[in-house]
Structures are given as structure tokens and as C-alpha cells.
Amino acid sequence: MIPSRRLSVAPMMDWTDRHDRYFLRLFSRGIWLYTEMVTSAGIKRGDWRRLLAFDPAERPVAAQLGGSDPAELALAAQRVEDLGYDEVNLNVGCPSDRVQSGRFGACLMAEPQLVADCVAAMRAVVRIPVTVKLRIGIDELDSYEYLHHFIGKLAQAGCEVFIVHARKAWLSGLSPKQNREIPPLRYDLVHQVKRDFPQLEISLNGGVLNLDQAETHLAQVDGVMIGRAAYQDPMILADVDRRFYGANTAAVTREAVIDQLIPYIEREMAAGCQFKHISRHILGLYQGVPGARAWRRVLSENAHKQNAGVELLREAAHWVKT
Predict the structure, then answer these.
(1) DSSP secondary-structure letter at 224?
(2) Per-residue model confidence as pLDDT tens digits over 203-239
(3) 65 in helix, strand or coil?
(4) Which of 172, 236, 244, 294 has CB atoms 3.0–4.6 Å from 319's, for a disulfide?
(5) Cα(157)–Cα(141) distance, rounded to whole angstroms?
(6) Number of neighbouring beta carbons within 10 Å of residue 274
(7) Regarding beta strands 201-205 and 61-66, do their DSSP bridges make them parallel or antiparallel, or are they unpaired?
């Protein structure tokens, strides 16, 4: 049985690749994971099996798509489902210039009918859930009335699950990083969306730093998505299954994570993967622990070397005092 989306880790470009997702899965069996955004054009024209590759151990896992062509997104959604993903998610929240130039991401919040058409086209060809990740608004389209209208339009097209980043986005004048920090968080608007659409599954995203904060929001919404906090300090996920999924297990330890990660690293390296492509995701494992700086230094300074492998992981761990 697939767990609910009570807790999830946000899709993050250049971060939540398949190695990072495998690593994060070692902290929780229940938490939902999301791919980096993959464009529907790339899936249509490129090596889509490589772009969407994942390990079955990552499940439950969703593929996030970027695009605005209904037919192209439908094809991409079919391929996502064919590979065994549990959900296909449409990005309507990324404000970067690169994304806007492709007419997808947050700029689509100005075109609710087009997004509804995209949702309907995907839902017509797949059985897995089609979900949407969006902002509370963009530019001057930032009233609650507009957000309500936008979600209502997509709900009419059949979308039943929304992940709402509780900040508006400015499409010009702010970098993607600034768009994650400068516009104020408006959790109240996301909570209001759930009250106004009780039949929909509403998850909140933006600025959630730990499980205590997540638990507070879960009193008013169906799910919480954690982003950079989970990447930079993955141990905040160690108690997720007990607290949010009813598991009768102790919290995960760092040592147990390393023990489980080593066979994966060995398998991936035997298939041609370089150690540095995996090790870059685990630098935060000992965040806040004496010796964490040495752990990061040993890995960062040596992971690129030709002979780098699991022995380097063990060497780095020797510097940590737990």
C-alpha cells in the first residue's frame, strides 16, 4: 500500500537526482520523494528512460514535469507511468528566467485555462494521480480570489492534489533564490485553500524547517513538503515514520544509513557512476555533530579523485564524534 503524502521532500533542481532520492529513502519508508523537474520536451525528444531513471527502492516517488503543451505533457505522463512512478506532478511554481523562456513554471499561473487543459490531457491517458505544484500568486496576480479561482479551474479539470508554495513569485527582478526568501510566507492562504476546498488534498510548501513545524501545519492541511532543510540536514527526517506514519520503529541512525548506502555506492560505481556524483548529496549527514566539518572536508576534497570510493566514506566517518 502506498503511504499518504503527509510528508514529502520537494523537487529541487540539481539536488534531488536519483542518487539523492535513494539516500533520502534510507531515512523514511513513508515520505514521498520528487524528481528534479524534467521537461516534457526533453522526454519527447531525448533519452527519456535515462532522464526518468529511478531505483524501485525510491518509491513512493513522483516525477515532476515542466511544460505547457497538453499533447506533449500527455506523452510525458504516459512514459512516467510506464516506468512505474506513483505520481506525475506539473510544475507551475518555478520562477527562473530559463523556465519562463520555455513557457512553463510559475508564469503559467497567468494562464489557468491552459494549465487546466494540460491537467485534463494528462489525466486522460494515465491512471496515476496528476498533481500540481504552484505558488500562491505571481506578480500582481496575488489576491486570494485569484488563487481560489486558479485552483477551482484545475479542480474542474480533474486535479485533486495541490502542493502550494506559500510565497508569491516575482517573474522579473528577483532571482530564484530571492523568490524563495523575499516574498513573505502566507501560510494563512494555504490553510484557507484547504478550508475552501475540503474535498481536495492540499499540501503546504515553503519555509518548513523541521518536523515540529510540519506537525503544526498538518492540523490544517493534508500534507507538508520540506525542501532545502531536508537536503542540508537529512537527519531531520529520521523520525518521520514513527511520528507521521505510525511505524513502531526507532529513529534512523547515521551509522545505519551509511551501512545501507555502501552497497548502493558499490553497485552504482560498478555500473560506471563516479563516487562524487553520490557523495555530494551526503555532505549534510553529520550536520551539527562534532567532526562534521572534517567529514565534509574529506569528502569534498577527495571525492573527485580516480580511486575515490566507499573507503573514503569510512575514512570521513572516522573524524566524526557521535
Answers:
(1) E
(2) 999 999 999 999 999 999 999 999 999 999 999 999 9
(3) strand
(4) 294
(5) 21
(6) 15
(7) unpaired
For residue 110, which amino acid is it? A
Distance between CA 154 and CA 118 in Å, rounded?
A: 9
State how far the Cα of 128 lies from the Cα of 142, in Å rounded to an integer. 31
CA 200 vs. chain centroid, Å, equals 20
User: What's the CA gap between 119 and 8, in Å, rounded?
Assistant: 21
- Contact, 31 vs 240, CB < 8 A? yes
Q: Using alpha carbons, select from 228, 243, 187, 201 the residue that is nearest to residue 12.
A: 228
pLDDT bracket for residue 249 (50, 70, 90): confident
Q: What is the pLDDT of residue 2?
A: 73
pLDDT (0 to 100) of residue 173: 83
303 contact partners, CB below 8 Å, separation of at least 6: 275, 276, 279, 280, 312
Give the active site residues.
Answer: 94
Q: Which residues pair with 61 in a beta bridge?
A: 33
Spatial separation of the C-alpha atoms in residues 32 and 61, rounded to whole Å: 6
Return d(Cα 62, Cα 200) in angstroms, integer.
18
Q: Which residues pair with 130 in a beta bridge?
A: 88
Least confident of 17-31, 175-189, 215-229, 286-300: 175-189
3-state helix, strand, coil in the chain (%, to 5): 45, 15, 40
